[in-house]
Amino acid sequence: MKIVHIIEEVRQSVQAAKKQGAKIGLVPTMGALHAGHGSLIEAAMAECDFVVVTIFVNPTQFGPGEDLDKYPRTLKEDAAYCEKLGADLIFAPSDKEMYPASQLVWVDVDKLTEGLCGAKRPGHFRGVTTVCAKLFNIVGADIAYFGQKDAQQVAVIRQMVQGLNMLLEIRICPIVREPDGLAVSSRNQYLSADERQRAVCLSQALTQCKEQIDAGQRDAAILTARMRTVIEHYGGRIDYVEIVDAEILQPLHAIEGRVLIAVAVFFGRTRLIDNILLDLK
Ligand code: PAF
User: Fold this and answer.
1) N or C: fewer beta carbons within 10 Å in the chain?
2) In this structure, what CATH number is given to the domain that contains residue 87?
3) Range of the domain at 18
């Protein structure tokens, strides 16, 4: 496995692989790799001949006061993990390589970025879509892999690919969970032992919500109120608890069709997100 830091080197490696007829898989990450990323790399390995993992803590998707400086940077461990899983290439550029001058070109996806995390993190998705567009152009992959945990990111990136007629396919992999149900995340490491125990309420609230829907409850206001009660009982500070249409991410009053139930909750200073996707057709 090679590690490269320069755009031109990625292009050369990918071109060489393409000349051999390889299907190229891309797993964009910000590093601090965990089992969630591992599942994306494994999915890419199963479907592609040459797998590129990008590791770049993208400054343009962090707002003022967010954890950009604190975000874990663990390239050595990440490289060992990618090598173990069989990835072919790591692209770990510097900020300067990705943003050599002040960025005057941005990719914006309207509407889908207004609610949920977008409402609380202005500019976040503009940073995500811009860096993903850059990475898609740099790598030239056939398929890019993302995790369902970042449900809004998934919807926004799909919309970008469709709206800008990008050639690559997007694959979404299921959320990876700890044995107690907590969704695996780089941010879990910031939780104290007590917060870590209490954080299990996110997946519990979501599971209970699904059970109530399975039992016939269709009123979104009743369902979200119950989720809020569960989370608050565990001392979580709610950022949002919402039930939205899975495609356009608009809030639903009555539950029907493809539904995304999404939560964002603070434990101390750590903000965790989780979701469940349901198809009620
Ligand atoms: O999901 C992430 O880790 C990031 O948002 C991504 C897609 C790598 C873009 O920086």
Assistant:
1) C
2) 3.40.50.620
3) 2-173
